[in-house]
Write a structure and sequence with these properties.
six-stranded mixed beta sheet, five-stranded mixed beta sheet, 34% helix
């Protein structure tokens, strides 16, 4: 009879979580029940509703809720990271070619609390001098929290049929900021050379933006204080297995897997997905700064207030031929 406490996890649908879901990586003192959600929003909502003890969760929403005293606690495991220059999109026929041209334009976003949008707005301000107050933001639904937006910020709610991309292509928006690339055709990236721009951004800032963190309901950790340490260590092992699989040209579906891997390692190093606070201080403090500047926080937050303090094992993934 298994008398271990159950730890249910709403995981993301990606290689860094797959070993947690398929049983290759487990926990010593807990029975891990991890479910991969193809739709991030569904996993986040089910975790937040209390259907899972822990979950991969939006960092923008987490810091906003935590600053309001929500009973949530994150561990420093960051399984979803993307550079966000590539996710500022315009119609193929748009005359917009540069960030400065977004001033005064209608830009669709899923929510002010969406982490992709948080990073995109911060990058536009820091890198190109285009402040959030200079853009007309439009969301499809009201925000879930009362926000303290900077003076001059303009956000309108405009419900409509279809995705943000579909609505942009019908002319409702001049541009959109999205967390994932749309299925619709007829759009292009605002930054035509976005990969080169993002690589130069990383070389200069050392920031690889993170969107999610593994988060617990605090009541679970009160009952099971060892769960944070065990799940963090398991997340590290799962991530390292994913990095090892990346090195295997037979495992990958990409014909030029090795070329892509070598290019990425030349720019981002051997482990751009590093977990833990150590080595991620700049990306995390930048995210917190953006959240404060953009009105998400009810009070100033520190890393110590947001993340459980843990030992941070970071064994290098094995090479594979």
């Amino acid at each position: 009879m298994n008398d271990k406490p159950v730890l249910s996890l709403a995981a993301g649908y990606h290689l860094r979580a797959k070993p947690l879901c398929d049983g290759r990586v487990g926990l010593q003192n807990f029975e891990l029940r991890a479910v991969a959600f193809e739709e991030d929003a569904a996993g986040h909502e089910e975790f937040q509703a209390g259907k899972y003890d822990a979950g991969e969760f939006s960092l923008a929403m987490y810091v906003a809720l935590k600053s309001r005293g929500a009973p949530l606690t994150a561990i420093p495991a960051f399984p979803n990271r993307k550079f966000r220059h590539s996710y500022i999109l315009v119609p193929e026929t748009s005359p917009l070619m540069a960030p400065a041209q977004l001033r005064g334009k209608r830009v669709g976003i899923l929510s002010w609390l969406n982490t992709a949008g948080l990073w995109a707005r911060g990058v536009l301000s820091d890198e190109y001098g285009v402040r959030p107050q200079e853009i007309h933001w439009i969301t499809p639904r009201p925000e879930k929290l009362d926000l303290h937006l900077p003076p001059g910020t303009r956000i309108d709610v405009a419900s409509g049929d279809g995705t943000l991309a579909a609505r942009m292509l019908r002319g409702e928006f001049d541009a959109i900021v999205v967390p994932d690339f749309p299925l619709e055709r007829g759009w292009r990236r605002l930054f035509a050379d976005s990969k080169e721009v993002e690589q130069e951004y990383f070389r200069r800032t050392r920031i690889f933006p993170t969107s999610h963190a593994i988060t617990f309901h605090s009541s679970y950790l009160t009952r099971n204080p060892g769960a944070a340490r065990e799940l963090f260590a398991a997340c590290v092992r799962a991530k390292n297995l994913a990095l090892r699989d990346d090195a295997d040209a037979t495992y990958s579906n990409f014909a030029w897997n090795r070329h892509m891997r070598e290019e990425q390692r030349a720019v981002l190093g051997t482990d751009p997905w590093r977990y833990g606070i150590r080595g991620n201080e700049k990306v995390l403090t930048t995210l917190i700064r953006y959240a404060g500047e953009q009105g998400l926080l009810a009070k100033t937050m520190t890393l110590d207030e947001l993340f459980v303090e843990l030992e941070e094992p970071q064994d290098e993934p094995a090479e594979s031929g």
